[in-house]
Amino acid sequence: MPLNDLPWWRWRARIRSALHMLSDPSFQQHTWLAGRDGYGDVTDAVYRLVEDSWLDRWSAEKYIGTVVRDAAEAVALDAAVLRVLRVLHQVGADAPAAAYLGHQLWPEAVTAAREAHVLFAVNDGEDPDVPPRSLEVLRIMTQAA
Fold first, then answer.
1. Is residue 70 over pLDDT 80?
2. Which of the residues 34, 46, 79, 111 has the least number of beta carbons within 10 Å of its own beta carbon?
3. Which residues are paired to 64 by β-bridges?
4. Virtual CA dihedral for 131, 134, 137, 142, nearest 10 degrees?
5. Which residues pair with 68 in a beta bridge?
């Protein structure tokens, strides 16, 4: 299914972008730790994950049929959000990438993000193993026609 078949597909695209970056340890090493431009930082990804959706306040189940396709996606997304936010709250917002990546709970957050990312990508008919897109590509993909 295409990404834009859901009513709030732009939010889905931003959430997917965050999950993709949060789920890829190689990307994190070569981009966030290296300070590579064009992809934001860990905090940017966390905010993309929760800012429009308020997933830090309520379950993704609320968005079935608008942002998420089904209960399986909602469960996977909730698990990823909870694990990522647990690390964020312990290291603090705007902490350097090394603080997140070195945190003892980060591997759990990465695993949960990976599970959600793979599910979302496959359900959208995309390859979950391609590298994350830049924020500029995301902006272009989600701009209003």
1. yes
2. 34
3. 68
4. 100
5. 64
Cα→Cα distances 33→25, 62, 110, Å: 10, 34, 15
Q: Are 1 and 123 in contact (CB under 8 A)?
A: yes
CA distances from 108 to 32, 37, 90, 114, 139 (A): 18, 26, 14, 10, 29
Task: Quote the mean pLDDT of the chain.
Answer: 94
pLDDT band at 81 (very low <50, low <70, confident <90, very high): very high
The pair of structure tokens assigned to 95 is 């902490």
Share of the chain above pLDDT 90, in %: 89
What pLDDT shows up at residue 77?
Answer: 98
User: Which pLDDT score, from 0 to 100, does residue 144 have?
Assistant: 67
Residues 6+ apart with CB under 8 A from 48: 14, 15, 17, 18, 40
Distance CA 141, CA 72 (A): 25
Rg (CA), the chain: 14
Answer whether 110's CB lies under 8 Å from 25's CB. Answer: yes
